[in-house]
Amino acid sequence: MKSVRFVTFGCKANQYDTQVLRETLLRRGMSESQKDTDLLVVNTCTVTAEAGRKARQLIRRVHREQPDTQICVTGCLAENEPKVLRELPGVRWVLGNGEAKRPINFLRELGHEVSPEELGIPAGITQFQGHTRAFLKIQDGCDQACSFCIIPGVRGKSQSRSIEELCAEVRRLVTAGHVEIVLCGIHIGHWGRDLGLALPDLLQALVDLDLRQAGGAPAPFRLRLSSIEATEVCDRTLDLMAAHPERLAPHLHMPLQSGSNTILRAMNRWYDTDQYLEACEHIRSRLDRPALSADVLVGFPGETEVHFQETLETSRAAGFCRMHIFPFSARAGTPAATMGGAVAPEDVRDRRMRLSEWASQSARDFSRSLEGVEETVVL
Prior knowledge:
By secondary structure, this protein is α/β, with parallel strands linked by helices. 39% of the residues lie in helices and 16% in strands. Strand 1, helix 1 (12-26) and strand 2 form a beta-alpha-beta unit.
């Protein structure tokens, strides 16, 4: 095989994983193309049923249009539904997460011999192709058990990468020209728990990096947290963000999921709306004009119009600059999949539309609050 195409569904962690596989194959002399290729690598998502449907649709279409292309399916859907994927036409390899997706094992699965030199290649990536900002996966897996979420079952327990490995990777990425590094993972607030450390320890090490351009001037770069739970934003993190605004972007994306305490309990979330809003208020008291954004799920089983109105009220009180609003998707094997009280699809669509309308207004209000303020922008 000489040519390869990569297609990625899902989160920033998945996009990072694809870049690892991309560099692994390009080092072997393969060329990347978006047209007819010998190999298609599909990195899949299984957070929602729609994500799985899109991946299967792509696989069928590629096989229909390019029957000679060999297809390798990896990622969370491959971990969750390997038998279904193996039965799709054109699929030769189905590799889940974990050991199967490690670069060396990935090559062996594809039939490549692995040289001793390749065993010594540093973990991680050297660049994030085609992007000004690069994603840096600092951990994988999740130890929580939200009733609607299938990810702990397909990603496993939280596992952190070492500070030394991550600092070395940031050096490579900044040297490659990336001016923003987004720290991502599945549950980044749990980084370091398995190492006897905490997220601020990593942030301090990255802030302290002395990176220089060829002429000796400091290399410009900043760090951004991708998504962190409101209950895991500690004062040490806020102290670092306040002291180094040029290095740590004052943006915190904190999943809310619901603004109703009744629904939060059914979701097996570990906070209530008062705790969430207190965290927002505390962050604003410590940082200069922070940007707060959130994920919100509508249509969870048992959600009534009263519960939805509570979500609207909580969202208004939080004052988000941006919201990611998505409908509930039942995932087999999760407690929520067998809960009663399914919300009618037309009600889910209506609630999503109403919340989106408010979110757009909130985003405009946040933008207006910055009128006359000079900020550094990364393009």
